Amino acid sequence: MENKTFTYKNNFVLESGQVLENLTIQYSTLGKLNSRKDNVIWVCHALTANSEVHNWWYGLVGEDKFFNPEKHFVICANILGSCYGTSGPLEVNPKTGKQYFLEFPQVTIRDMVNAHIVLKEELGITKIHSCIGGSLGGQQAMEWAIMAPDTIENLILLATNAFHSPWGIAFNESQRMAIKADKTWQECREDAGQEGLKAARAIALLSYRNYNTYVSTQKETDENKLDSYKASSYQNYQGVKLVNRFNCHSYLYLSKAMDSHHVGRGRGGAEVALKAIKSNTLVVGIKTDILFPVCEQIFLAQNIVGAEYQEIDSLYGHDGFLIETEKIAHILQDFYKRKTATGLF
């Protein structure tokens, strides 16, 4: 794996009309571009992930995995607004010489995709064999297939939607409320709002999993217990894990970007926008997903011309797109057998 950083020398205009100077993109690659330049797999990551896809999707990407660097040139770019090296609240504002923090402009999914396009052009890539993403990553992949319909040959959308639902926005707002209840959240320091971020992650986890997940993994065996429950410890543990690797300001910006996701904005509605997709498209839903319920993936499959829909079951709800890699790989193998004649899979 190679971690690299690209700095765009031109002004980068956001959907809002605001301009970012010195756009920086941190990205990672696995494998090499082949002589035909037809083996590019572009992975779009989700909310708090990073470009090191082989670490967080290790069941699907890596040596001897479905997306194998021996055959494929795998690219994953960290998204705008995050805290892993791409322009975001923790990066330095060239106008002030200080970190942006809450002066960073609001970004959208389309802005993230435009940054991907800038990087694609820098790398000399004209065609993407497959673009894949789950959740917010799927939102990016979908936008890209609409914005540049001749670029992506195969589009893989997992546990995602055409526009963010009132339910999803409510979850995100609840998390932002938790962050803003922390008196330090507006302070211009990287460790601001940590207690709020911890609580936000605990709220988010409830939407990523479901009732049966907790019954299966956090059930008590001591019926006389009055405190210190497994589920309580688990929520705290997950909150601390995120605090140790993420930042509250980035979390605020990225949750807002997810809320703004709507492929139909300025395009005559979602149904019209989805029909612009030319890619061979596979949509995967998770039966137990309460955050992105399967009705949202069925809507995609019904409105993307020629799209296929598959569904998996998982104890882990929405997080199944990260965890159920064996099931996903099986679905992908079947899809590619029917859709491509190349020897890449």
From TrEMBL:
It catalyses: L-homoserine + acetyl-CoA = O-acetyl-L-homoserine + CoA. Its main location: cytoplasm. The keyword Coiled coil does not apply. Residues 40-322 form the AB hydrolase-1 domain. Substrate binds at R201, D319. Its EC number is 2.3.1.31. Keywords: Acyltransferase, Amino-acid biosynthesis, Cytoplasm, Methionine biosynthesis, Transferase. Pathway: Amino-acid biosynthesis; L-methionine biosynthesis via de novo pathway; O-acetyl-L-homoserine from L-homoserine: step 1/1. GO terms for biological process: homoserine metabolic process; methionine biosynthetic process. The keyword Transferase applies. The active site is at S135 (nucleophile), D289, H318. It is an enzyme of class 2 (transferase). It comes from the Bacteria. Homodimer. HAMAP family: MetX_acyltransf. PANTHER family: HOMOSERINE O-ACETYLTRANSFERASE. This is Homoserine O-acetyltransferase. It comes from Sporocytophaga myxococcoides. The gene is metXA.
